[in-house]
Write a structure and sequence with these properties.
Layout: H1 6-27, E1 39-40, E2 48-49, H2 51-67, E3 72-75, E4 79-81, E5 88-95, H3 97-102, E6 108-115, E7 118-126, E8 131-136, E9 139-144, E10 147-150, E11 163-166, H4 174-186, E12 189-192, H5 196-203, E13 209-215, H6 217-229, E14 233-235, E15 246-251, H7 254-264
Parallel strand pairs: 3-5, 11-12, 11-13
Antiparallel strand pairs: 1-2, 3-4, 5-6, 6-7, 7-8, 8-9, 9-10, 13-15, 14-15
Protein name: Histidinol-phosphatase
Pathway: Amino-acid biosynthesis; L-histidine biosynthesis; L-histidine from 5-phospho-alpha-D-ribose 1-diphosphate: step 8/9
Family: Belongs to the inositol monophosphatase superfamily.
Length: 266
């Protein structure tokens, strides 16, 4: 990440919170609404999008057009808008649309602003729960029903004591799944289906690992910023930068990251 001024960081945070607030307002009227339907974006599978996804991204883009028109935008639903500032807002209006459709509360809004090297700062916002996880230069905190608290990822502990999350048991290709299952079989507990909330729990010090494959930039850039600010590490399965998506491992600390990487690549 390039050096940026305190004034710019402050302005970016002001805009990021405005985006999260607007997304909450656009989404919540549709959550658990009678008759909510979804279009399927994936032939041969199920990748849903709802009116709430699109409304939230439109609301966030409207704010960016007014407050940061010089910045680029990469959004899940409405694509890419080029900018001139060298900064890009990476938006996932509802991460976990399947959960949203099912009425579960752990879906979230993912917001990041990035430069050429990756995310500068990010938010994992949980509109229904009322929690907002924020991470960036000098800041790692969550606000919610328990007030405002610092974020700090969990200290090292043996892999056989670890808790791991992944959205789907069917992780990637057969080869990728075999690597994931080696880690699954080594940890104490594996849980599925939490979408972006699993990454938030790494930053909060509740779980040790999230391992997934087939992610996009808008799935991971917000979580990267939050977890790294909390002291964790997020890479691909070879230990390289992963802000452009792909196979992702988010770990509470370098020690458990190294143990899990060794099994993924055994």
């Amino acid at each position: 990440m390039a050096d940026i001024s305190k004034e710019l960081v402050s302005d970016l945070w002001k805009t990021a919170h405005a985006l999260a607030d607007a997304a909450r307002a656009a989404i919540l009227p549709h959550f658990r609404a009678t008759g909510l339907d979804a279009e399927n974006k994936l032939a041969g599978g199920f990748d849903p999008v709802t009116v709430a996804d699109r409304a939230a991204e439109v609301a966030m883009r409207d704010i960016l057009a007014a407050q940061r028109p010089q910045d680029g935008i990469l959004g899940e639903e409405l694509g890419t808008t080029t900018g001139t500032s060298g900064l890009t807002w990476v938006l996932d209006p509802i991460d976990g649309t399947r959960g949203f459709l099912s009425g579960t509360p752990t879906w979230g809004v993912l917001i990041a602003v990035s430069d050429e090297s990756g995310p500068v700062l990010g938010i994992i916002d949980q509109p229904y729960i009322g929690e907002r996880f924020c991470g960036g230069p000098g800041l790692a905190e969550v606000t919610g029903p328990l007030g405002t608290r610092p974020l700090a990822s969990r200290a090292p502990r043996p892999l056989d004591q670890a808790i791991m999350f992944s959205t789907f048991p069917e992780v990637g290709s057969a080869e990728e799944r075999a690597g994931f299952e080696r880690v699954r079989d080594a940890v104490r507990l594996t849980r599925y289906g939490m979408d972006c909330y699993g990454y938030a729990l790494v930053a909060a010090g509740q779980v040790d690992l999230v391992i997934e494959a087939g992610l996009y930039p808008y799935d991971v850039q917000g979580p990267i910023a939050v977890i790294e600010a909390a002291g964790g590490i997020v890479t691909d399965w070879q230990g390289n930068p992963v802000h452009m998506g792909g196979r992702v491992i988010a770990a509470a600390n370098a020690e458990i990251h190294a143990e899990a990487l060794a099994l993924l690549n055994a």
